[in-house]
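Student: I would love a firmer grasp of how sequence relates to backbone shape in proteins. I am handing you a single protein, as its sequence and its fold in token form. I am told such tokens are a discrete way to write the fold. I hope you can help me see how the letters and the tokens relate. Take your time, and here it is.
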Amino acid sequence: MRTNALTAAERAALDVTIRNAEQVSRAEISVFVGAASGEPRDFATSLHNTLVLPARSILIMVDPDRRVVEIVTGGHVRERITDDEAQQAAAAMTARFSAGDLAGGLTRGIELLAELAQD
């Protein structure tokens, strides 16, 4: 997770949320908060492709300045999470983001994706 938009305490809490979500979902979960270089979807996909186990991974990319959220899932995860479900998780996150709650939005999105990705 990379971000200066979150406090140290928020980052620590998100790390715990991610670890718990990974145990529930048996998927690797990564979060990037920052400026997307170029097209956001292409940028998120390129980040996802650099992960250790992209087939078993979920990447959440948030560009707060451009107000963009991208969720990229690997092949194994995509068998359990549909595009519509990923969109629902993104919508849940953006609802909290628009209220000024970046950490809460990320937490909710991570938890939703983990529930959906359970075997």
Q: What stands out?
A: The chain has a mean pLDDT of 93. The helical segments are 8-25, 40-49, 75-78, 83-98, 102-116. The first helix runs from residue 8 to 25.
